[in-house]
Each structure stands twice: as C-alpha cells, then as structure tokens.
Amino acid sequence: MSTFTIFLALIVVVAFLLIVVVMVQNPKGGGLSSSFGGGGTQQLGGVKKTTDFLDKSTWTLATLLLVLILLSNVAINRGSENVDSKALDPDAAAAQPLPAVPEDNAATTLPEASTATDSAQ
C-alpha cells in the first residue's frame, strides 16, 4: 500500500466526517433574519456547549482536510523522469514517426455514386 493510497483513504474519511458534522449543526440564522428578532432563539436549552464543539470540529476537520490534500500532492508517485513536459523533451519528438502517406491514390478515392438512370439501363 503506497503512501498516496493512505492519504487518499484519510481524505475520504475526513471528508465524510466533515459532511456529517456540517449536517448535524443547526443553521446559524445570520444575515437579515437575525436583525429582525430571530437571532436569540438558537441559544435556548443550554446548547451553547454543543454548538461550540460542532463549530470547533468543523474548523478542525476542514483544516485537516486541507493539510491532507496538500500532503498527498507530495506523496504522488511521479516516476523517475525529470522531464516536466513531453513537448520540452527533444528525444520524445524524434521518437514519433510521421504518418505514412499511401502511394496508391486510387485506393484512397471514393467510388463514384451511380445515378438512377444508370440502374435503369
């Protein structure tokens, strides 16, 4: 199992956990709805600690996901070549031959379409 595969599995797990944590949260009700008197109803029943935990978990999982994605870029197996592009490699351009041109032009032409008068005769 390569390092990139491990990073990929961790990215999938963290992304799934981030989706679950975001879906569990109550909507914050920001914007215009909080200025018209609807902002104070979210803190009833002592759920301040739960929202703090979910908020911190969201930021932690999002940061972890970003770090794992950046670290997985380092773990990608790029091979042993140091060439960035095949267009910059002079050996790669010389290795590809040009397509052969057929010498018999009769084989490449399309047969002429017969007209209805030819079939009647």
From TrEMBL:
<dbReference type="InterPro" id="IPR004692">
    <property type="entry name" value="SecG"/>
</dbReference>
<keyword id="KW-0811">Translocation</keyword>
<keyword id="KW-0653">Protein transport</keyword>
<comment type="function">
    <text>Involved in protein export. Participates in an early event of protein translocation.</text>
</comment>
<keyword id="KW-0472">Membrane</keyword>
<feature type="transmembrane region" description="Helical">
    <location>
        <begin position="58"/>
        <end position="76"/>
    </location>
</feature>
<keyword id="KW-0812">Transmembrane</keyword>
<comment type="similarity">
    <text>Belongs to the SecG family.</text>
</comment>
<protein>
    <recommendedName>
        <fullName>Protein-export membrane protein SecG</fullName>
    </recommendedName>
</protein>
<feature type="compositionally biased region" description="Polar residues">
    <location>
        <begin position="106"/>
        <end position="121"/>
    </location>
</feature>
<keyword id="KW-1003">Cell membrane</keyword>
<feature type="region of interest" description="Disordered">
    <location>
        <begin position="94"/>
        <end position="121"/>
    </location>
</feature>
<keyword id="KW-1133">Transmembrane helix</keyword>
<keyword id="KW-0813">Transport</keyword>
<dbReference type="Pfam" id="PF03840">
    <property type="entry name" value="SecG"/>
</dbReference>
<feature type="transmembrane region" description="Helical">
    <location>
        <begin position="6"/>
        <end position="24"/>
    </location>
</feature>
